Backbone:
């Protein structure tokens, strides 16, 4: 169910906040074989639900999220509730204060039901490394949900909450959204407060929603991102279909679904132009330099490898080998890309691309074959997402079809910095178009 | 002759026939090539530091 649907039930008195929250916990406790939560907060959630019910009875309505269950990635600080980062290091860490986003969501009337599992310290894209065990994809439990916000995407895909907060440093919202068939929105850099959210890489970290629908992301962004609603029409929309980078070395079915979506946009009057874009392979390299350095800086005082998974520890050690001049040069490369993309945005409203070059890999796949070429599954998962963190542009992943095996395919839309509201409005139109096309069997 | 259909993203896991190259060195080498495009007038991008509640 969506935020609107739950809100309608509550306001029509067809259920109460307490009843709905109780139902949500029953569903999770009965059906969560995907390991999507680290901590469930039943007692606190029910107490808040009782307050929200009393408010509704008294005629106090805090808005669309009033009484709606949500979940929080377990790197988001919650006062009095442990916040683990899915790591041994923070296994018993209980913050004294809520993160700014938690305060905002509580004020909106949303009720957090718990803290979702993730790839340890948000440093990975598979969600197979967690001190609390790996997460599974609800579409096929033999496959990964993607990460690092794996538990958040699973909780939404399973239908337990209409929205769960995630974070995205190199694709960690959009990748699990793509693999789990839900919507993931990475706002413009610094649009949403990171205060009280465990950092991975200061200059690349973004906090954002994973929702059942685009509207669930819009309603959340109105609370945590100060978003004003916008209207956009597809007719006349200037769409950039990249002639390089985004469609190189991608799965055939992903390619077909994304290009089919683009054709649907064109039929609605969008002006689609195939255009070469700056070489984001270079941006990816610079982003990896920055991420390696900054993540190592965050954990530089931690010298006990026993507190980390060996893979995560290895990544943190790799960052020590990146030199100061390389870090500075990566930030200088960023300046060049910023200038190039500022020019690109004079001609276009949105870039259309795949979110990931593949669909969810099998859990045991360390490497995948794409177009006959072998590629590390983690690197493939992040390849089309990471550069957007480097740029800081807002980007969204939404489902645009399924493979013959029934696995979701993610469509990525990217807009200019600050155009979050317009991008979400475009995504809502695209979502409607795809739903209509799928119902009409235009998209397989 | 029976031919297995090729699955997209098919498994090739745990192949150990080649000694993997050091990933950090590969990254640094590739980045060094990218850095050659930099001229002295290009300054680092600055990171906006927000107020506490922004």
Residues:
């Amino acid at each position: 169910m969506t935020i609107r649907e739950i809100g309608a039930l509550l306001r029509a008195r067809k259920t109460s906040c307490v009843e709905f929250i109780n139902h949500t916990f029953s569903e999770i406790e009965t059906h969560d074989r995907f390991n999507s939560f680290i901590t469930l907060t039943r007692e606190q959630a029910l107490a808040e639900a009782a307050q929200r019910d009393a408010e509704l009875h008294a005629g106090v309505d805090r808005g669309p999220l009033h009484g709606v269950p949500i979940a929080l990635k377990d790197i988001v600080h919650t006062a009095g509730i442990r916040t683990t980062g899915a790591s041994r290091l923070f296994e018993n860490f209980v913050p004294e204060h809520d993160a700014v986003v938690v305060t905002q969501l509580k004020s909106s009337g949303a009720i957090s039901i718990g803290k979702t599992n993730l790839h340890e310290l948000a440093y990975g894209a598979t969600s197979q490394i967690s001190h609390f065990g790996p997460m599974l994809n609800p579409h096929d439990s033999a496959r990964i949900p993607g990460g690092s916000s794996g538990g958040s995407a699973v909780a939404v895909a399973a239908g337990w909450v209409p929205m769960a907060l995630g974070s995205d440093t190199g694709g960690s919202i959009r990748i699990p959204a793509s693999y789990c068939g839900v919507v993931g929105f990475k706002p413009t850099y610094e649009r949403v407060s990171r205060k009280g959210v465990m950092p991975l890489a200061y200059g690349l970290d973004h906090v954002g929603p994973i929702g059942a629908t685009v509207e669930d992301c819009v309603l959340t962004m109105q609370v945590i991102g100060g978003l004003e609603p916008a209207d956009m029409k597809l007719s006349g929309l200037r769409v950039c279909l990249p002639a390089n980078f985004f469609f190189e070395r991608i799965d055939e079915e992903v390619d077909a679904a994304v290009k089919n979506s683009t054709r649907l946009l064109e039929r609605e009057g969008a002006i689609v132009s195939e255009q070469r874009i700056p070489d984001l392979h270079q941006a990816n390299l610079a982003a990896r330099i920055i991420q390696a350095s900054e993540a190592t800086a965050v954990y530089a005082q931690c010298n006990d490898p026993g507190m980390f998974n060996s893979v995560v520890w290895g990544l943190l050690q790799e960052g020590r080998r990146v030199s100061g001049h390389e870090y500075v040069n990566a930030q200088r490369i960023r300046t060049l890309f910023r200038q190039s993309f500022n020019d690109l945005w004079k001609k276009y409203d949105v870039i259309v691309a795949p979110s990931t070059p593949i669909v969810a890999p099998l859990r045991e796949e360390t490497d995948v074959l794409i177009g006959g070429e072998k590629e590390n599954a983690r690197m493939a998962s992040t390849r089309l997402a990471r550069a957007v963190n480097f740029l800081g542009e807002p980007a969204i992943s939404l489902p645009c079809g399924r493979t013959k095996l029934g696995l979701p395919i993610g469509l990525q839309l990217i807009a200019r910095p600050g155009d979050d509201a317009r991008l979400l409005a475009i995504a809502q139109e695209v979502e409607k178009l795809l739903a209509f096309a799928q119902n009409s069997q235009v998209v397989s | 002759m029976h031919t297995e259909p090729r699955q997209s993203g098919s498994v090739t896991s745990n192949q150990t026939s080649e000694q993997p190259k050091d990933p950090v060195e590969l990254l640094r080498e590739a980045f060094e090539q990218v850095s050659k495009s930099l001229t002295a007038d290009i300054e680092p991008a600055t990171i906006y530091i927000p107020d506490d509640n922004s």
